Amino acid sequence: MAQHHPQPWYSWEPHMSLHHHHHYQHLYRAEQEEGRYEREHMFEKPLTPSDVGKLNRLVIPKQHAEKYFPLGGDSGEKGLLLSFEDESGKTWQFRYSYWNSSQSYVLTKGWSRFVKEKRLDAGDVVLFERPRLGGDRLYIGCRHRGGNDSPSPAQATTVPAAAGPWSPGYYAATCSYPTSSSCFSSAKQDCLLHAGDQRNGAIQSETEAPTTSKRLRLFGVDLDYQPEPRPDPMPSISWV
Amino acid sequence: MAQHHPQPWYSWEPHMSLHHHHHYQHLYRAEQEEGRYEREHMFEKPLTPSDVGKLNRLVIPKQHAEKYFPLGGDSGEKGLLLSFEDESGKTWQFRYSYWNSSQSYVLTKGWSRFVKEKRLDAGDVVLFERPRLGGDRLYIGCRHRGGNDSPSPAQATTVPAAAGPWSPGYYAATCSYPTSSSCFSSAKQDCLLHAGDQRNGAIQSETEAPTTSKRLRLFGVDLDYQPEPRPDPMPSISWV
DNA sequence: TACGCAACCTGGGTA
DNA sequence: GTACCCAGGTTGCGT
């Protein structure tokens, strides 16, 4: 289950060096107190242009979707409503469903509002977490590419390309985790999310990652890519 | 109730000047005989590109829908089947329902066939009438923009823009009523249409037009716009 | 397979 | 600012 980094190296552990300078510091403190490190990283996804564009949907890579958000029985029909909370304590509800046409899992309703409020751009990263010891709360966060966190009113340091060149190299650069950014917090999931009872056989076989995958697929947007030995949270490694 | 033009100026009263030259004349005659001027204009809508496009649905502006086609109780669930008849005596059935998602009233099933057969284009106008003295017959008609009526096999005088620039100005121009066109007749409504028992309170207040409305709203697409004193049917006024 | 159709969603405009 | 329309989209089912 664990993304084979039980203690995710990019980390939500508060790095003072990252957070002491902005107003979210107290939030991270509070989180430490009330349940320290109880969150487990599920997965994250570097956002594609489509994810932040007019399609108003986030494609969730199949292996993650089936592992963490299995759609069972009746929920397979209409999908479910998933609730997450972000760093500010705000609750975000997304409709989560499977699209037969594209054979993919997506977050639809609600997603565009998240993109807008967080000022997400292609290359930014969304993260999903849950309580380490079970429980049904879900957490969502994001990291702006370039790591130059600024949840300020001004345009969130969107990096050079506002009219973004979504070139291969650009995307790859994007997938480095240079500096963490802002968004994250604790959440409450108020809707069902049965872990068992999958929709079809294919899921079962996906439930445990078959390979010690290094998946890449660059433009096919997969980017699982666990760079094997990552001794310590030293997030400013970038690879091209 | 009356759109405050009991005798609609654009008129279904047979104007020989408009109709004497084509083969629908006898129909208009017949209508005169069997119940002269007994039809009451309900409303009309200039068609948007979506109304005639692949979406296969006609959005009925809310105030008209709730006034003339209230969806009550059980009919609110699945909508109703409305039957209209056109100028040729042909009966058209449409599924009429309310879409929660967009909070709008729509004609769905059957609509695309009407569009196709009448060769409707964006900018053309559909009209809805009913018997003036009550009764449950409904009538549907249309007017081609440019007024150059031609229910001929050839492309119905679609005016300049076939690959239509649906620009504001274009749309506005469209809403002038230059010359009436072809389609209209008497119909039989074979399905329930309870005039009472509205879906919500808002309807009641709409029942009588509050203002001596000259509604315009140009791009908001309303165009109720009865140009007050219209002494005689002189339909070739166009305003931009 | 392709299309009609039911239901859903969102942005932009408006009031 | 906020709430509401509605034009223009989407998915997915059925035929």
Short description:
Chain A is built from 8 helices and 7 strands, in the order H-H-E-H-E-H-H-E-E-E-H-E-E-H-H. Chain A is α+β, with helices and mostly antiparallel strands. The structure holds a DNA duplex (15 and 15 nucleotides).
Can you offer a commentary on this structure?
- Chains A, B: Keywords: DNA-binding, Nucleus, Transcription, Transcription regulation.
- Chains A, B: It is found in: Nucleus.
- Chains A, B: This is TF-B3 domain-containing protein.
- Chains A, B: It comes from Ensete ventricosum (Abyssinian banana).
- Chains A, B: InterPro entries: B3_DNA-bd, DNA-bd_pseudobarrel_sf, LEC2-like.
- The structure is a homodimer of 240-residue chains.
- Chain A is of the alpha+beta class and 240 residues long.
- The first copy, chain A, has a single domain (16-220), classed as DNA-binding pseudobarrel domain (At1g16640 B3 domain, Beta Barrel).
- The first copy, chain A, has 8 helices and 7 strands, in the order ααβαβααβββαββαα.
- In chain A, strands 2-5-4-3 form a 4-stranded antiparallel beta sheet. Chain A has a 3-stranded antiparallel beta sheet with strand order 1-6-7, with no helix packed on it.
- In chain A, a hairpin with a 7-residue loop joins strand 6 (125-131) and strand 7 (139-143).
- The radius of gyration of chain A is 17 Å and the shape is globular.
- Chain A starts with 15 loop residues before the first helix and ends in a 34-residue tail after the last helix.
- Residues 1-33, 149-165, 167-181 and 185-240 of chain A have low confidence and may be disordered.
- Chain B binds a DNA duplex (15 and 15 nucleotides) through residues 48-51, 53-57, 59, 61-62, 95, 97, 99-104, 108-109, 111-112, 217, 219-221.
